[in-house]
Write a structure and sequence with these properties.
Blueprint: H1 16-26, E1 33-39, E2 45-47, E3 60-62, E4 64-70, E5 78-80, E6 90-91, H2 92-99, E7 111-116, H3 117-123, H4 154-158, H5 164-205, E8 214-218, H6 223-234, E9 238-243, H7 246-258, E10 265-269, H8 275-289, E11 294-297, H9 314-339, E12 345-349, H10 362-382, E13 388-393, E14 397-398, H11 401-404, E15 419-420, H12 421-434, E16 438-440, H13 443-454, H14 456-470, H15 473-479
Parallel strand pairs: 8-9, 8-11, 9-10, 11-12, 12-13, 13-16, 14-15
Antiparallel strand pairs: 1-4, 1-7, 2-3, 4-5, 5-6
The protein binds NADP nicotinamide-adenine-dinucleotide phosphate.
Length: 480
Amino acid sequence: MIEFSNKKIIYTPCYCEENVYHLCKAFGKLDDIYVCFISNENRSIPIWKQRASKFHDGIVIWDYHVILLVKEKSNPTKVYDLDTTLSFPCDFSIYVQESFKILDDPQYHRKYRIIPAEKYLKVFASDRSHMDGTWFASPPIYSPISTSESVNNLPLFINMTENLDSKDFVSAYFTETLIFIGFMLLVPIFYAANFYFRYKRHRAATPWSIQEKVVVITGASSGIGAALAYEFARQGATLILCARQIDLLANVSKECKEKYCAKNVLIQKVDVTSETDVMRLVETVDAAYSKIDCLVLNAGVSMGETLESIEDFDLIKKIMEVNYIGSTMLAFYSLPLLKKADKARIVINSSLAGIIPVPLRTGYCGSKFALRGFFESLQSELVDDNIFITMAYAGAVKTDINKNRLGENPKKLDFNNAMSAEECAKIIVDGTVKGHKEIVFTNIGKIGRLMESVFPDLLAFLSYKRARKFYVKEIIDKSL
Ligand SMILES: NC(=O)c1ccc[n+]([C@@H]2O[C@H](COP(=O)([O-])OP(=O)(O)OC[C@H]3O[C@@H](n4cnc5c(N)ncnc54)[C@H](OP(=O)(O)O)[C@@H]3O)[C@@H](O)[C@H]2O)c1
């Protein structure tokens, strides 16, 4: 016996294709369930025993009609017709006998298209345009059904002469291939244009040296943040370092002064998720220097487990708060001071996980992807203000990030091929001075960045394969 959930059936008169779509969803297993479209070239098919009929025998001449067929091993096949006056469901033989009578005129001969229900749920889409905007019947209250490939393919299902497979699938990939070939032909032109705009940006952003620039760094108490402080100090910056652990900040400040000869280093205890702390930091900088030349948004936390294994969703919220809200909030309050500087910089220490999806880091990837959207959008707003935003996408860097991962049982990032924090900081500072729009680390990262827009499915596959090497195998298997 096939399991049919007792959920309330979704039904809208005259929208049989959508009613059947929802009916399919109500079944537990779709193995032996088929959607049957009935129509013909004249869009005139008689079906008897229909609730919408005004005649005593229940005949309606539909343009098309859709029913569901359920094959059962021991019982006769059942027909689920939401518009019939017969039983629901009805034995196939009774339904055929009662509803599929013959009218002699060939224009009324019925044709049938049978589609496995599973496939129907995957490909069917309708924008309801066949109702011609006049809405003979009120449309369903829920949104039209669509897929990533189509907003409307109902005509293909009703067209009884075309092969659905070739139309629905092959043409979608054919169109994609054509777009791709066209794109490839234009690649040299795009490449030249891209080079020109990069050069133009570089011209606008430079010359710019770090000497005596007011540089604010978040998360400067350890790892890449501390290394950035040393590199900026080495090149003569005036520093404002912040993080929550003031004792560690004091050590970094001391090293900036003693080892890298920094003249001015302020430290301030700041939790980037606290609006009060962030506002106070901006007030401190305003009082001391009245401008910010370079805002480095580095504070961040990570995770290392599957979404499924997380016990408390607060972990994802916390990552979002530190990585995304923390960075965007500080950028928001710093804007007036950034505008007072000449060719100011905002540097975001994102991650390759901000452009390439990585398992076990849903919340982390989400926060870093979000940063990209926010700051690329902000960049377009700030072009006339001569503020240059640099997104840094580093790969694995040897820091305390493993130790500081949130969650009960985070899996560690493999540091075997990781670069040092000092090397990472040098690359970020160099890209900042040059005013680069983005700094993508490692060759794999660069390829990934390129593939991201052109071969997204291949990239997702490769990123999963690569992640498998990094993380404990059984955890990944469990997450699949
Ligand atoms: N390590 C990598 O492989 C790697 C790769 C790519 C990108 N990144 C990014 O680099 C950044 C720095 O990470 P890291 O590797 O240097 O790790 P880390 O050594 O753990 O440093 C994280 C820093 O963020 C600060 N921080 C955390 N929560 C904060 C909060 N609520 N308010 C203020 N500061 C906070 C920490 O300071 P307190 O604890 O003192 O507050 C610490 O200074 C992160 O954004 C990370 O996503 C790291």
